[in-house]
Write the structure tokens for this entry.
Amino acid sequence: MNRGYPWPASALGPEEMRLLHEVRESGAERIPITRLIRDAVIETYRKEDNEGDNE
């Protein structure tokens, strides 16, 4: 089912994928790359929301 959204990883280059791979492999738990991307999005936008509250 395609809802018109491009797969997020298609915008990632080799360097970003290498970094994600390194993070996944270096942790005690081997977290799927899709979860790392999800967590990064949540963390980034949660910080932006909190910064807007201080204005």
